[in-house]
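Entry 14. Structure prediction run on the chain below.
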Amino acid sequence: MAQASVLDNPKYTYLIKKQPAFFRIWKKLFYYYCKLVFLCYTPLKVYGRKNIPNTSFIYSCNHNSHMDVALLAASVNKSFNYFGMLAAKDYWFDNRIKRILVNIVMNLIPIDRKVDGVRQFSIDETLALCDAFMNYNNRNIIMFPEGTRGIPGEMGAFKIGAAKFAIQLNVPILPALVVGSHKAWPKDKIFMRPTPIQIHILDPIYPEQFTQQNVLGETREDNLDQAARNMTTELENTIREKGRAFYG
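Output returned:
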């Protein structure tokens, strides 16, 4: 008997087709609330919207604040219905209440953390969900290449995860530099401060620039890691170069 696909699991239906109205409405309402905050309290200026691809993309930026996800959504004028994020399966998907609560605002896509070097939920299953999610209405995924919020006003080393996903999903990475969010809502602070914020949307980076393909047009497995490293270097250099004007 063939193994059931993760796409057939009703637990993840919200990722692969139109969501119930309740979730769509809440995501849109929260998006408009964020837009109001970014208009009146932490005024947001966005540069480079001409660089936004017409296709699905992985949106990546420096990460210093709780508000970065909302800022990225606002910067491309798309509600949270159009964005997904990877989340630890063992924490965010371990019970129904958590899944419902977090998905009121954000579409979380499960990724399993390794235990003794093994994942119970494979990367291929995560990729399948990402692909299905993005193929519905040209939706996008947010991935922070630093992996976590860094020291305020500084950038940590970039990891290759976003590039690997971009290559395997065959979608571009859209780099951005966020300036000021670390002052508006610093790490470990409860309340936001009235601070101007800028987002600079940079030129998209396409995976085919870094991959070698076989005669069937498939990316060679032995090329994937090196291609992801090269793509990550390009992503990091692009964001850091833009950031020098603001952070030195």
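The domain at 10-247 is CATH 3.40.1130 (Glycerol-3-phosphate (1)-acyltransferase).
Filed with the rest of this week's runs.
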